[in-house]
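pasting for the record
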Amino acid sequence: MTNLRAGLIGLGMMGRHHARVLRSLDGVDLVGVADPAGDPHKVAGGLTVQPDIEALIETGLDYCVVATPTAYHEEIGLALASAGVHALIEKPLSKDSEGSAKLAAAFQAAGLVGAVGHIERYNPALQSLRSRLLDGELGDIYQIITRRQGPFPARIADVGVVKDLATHDIDLTAWVVGSPFVSVAARTVHKSGRDHEDLVAVTGQLADGTVTSHLVNWLSPMKERVTIVTGDRGAYIADTLHADLTFHANGSIPTAWDDLAQFRGVSEGDVVRYAIAKPEPLRTEHEAFRDAILGKEETDIVTMLQGLATVEVAEAVLDSARDGTTVRLERQRQVEE
């Protein structure tokens, strides 16, 4: 079978990693790259760096990876849909829900595979966590907490921390339990002198009643990527920086010391750190998208409708922070279609 012909537009920090994976992917040939700013990381190899999406399409593509700044996602994605080219667009899907809805509709109408690069879904720790939650190993789920903080990324200029980073947590939270957000309340701060927010604290609730809490910033000197899920039988901690998953079980042995039992509440049980395979998330994401284009069953891609739902929640977070209110999500999109 002939290899799929892939293109890549956007040769910046993320684009260089996409190029590396595309070149090593079975059944795929990277045949064209584009970036009006050139090739700062020298990833083109022997390929001509095209100036725009139209020139890249002319090279003859089956699919294209879009790793440009968010502001250009809508324009580029619509051009690809019009040309009949499947697309994997980096998150967020677009700068706003209106553009995201246009993209989702265009790819659906054209019968094309459109996906969003929410790479955390492919983190081995979160994939193992989701599987265990779906198997009922935690019992009823009470709360999901995420913390995503670190130094300011110089690569980001067109969006704030909500759409750049918090969209990871919005998507993974709804996906890991299979339930959409129904409300959010948030506060933001602006400390870097930019137009966009640098820190957000969000409290939310999912349709199944799960309470969520998200702390996201790019003002911290240390880097942290943690997801904690608490339920009837204990708590899971997923460290997505290191792809580690740990389970803290509720204890089955009663605490004889009454004062200590009152102070601690739920008793401490066994702690298990799981040994899990750790493939590179970006490679897993690319393999899933390739397989979806080939029509293979049970491929796990982030659809554009799911990407749209995440952008809608992100906009609700910003609305809540601006107005000081709790915002309810009117449309509850299912995270599994």
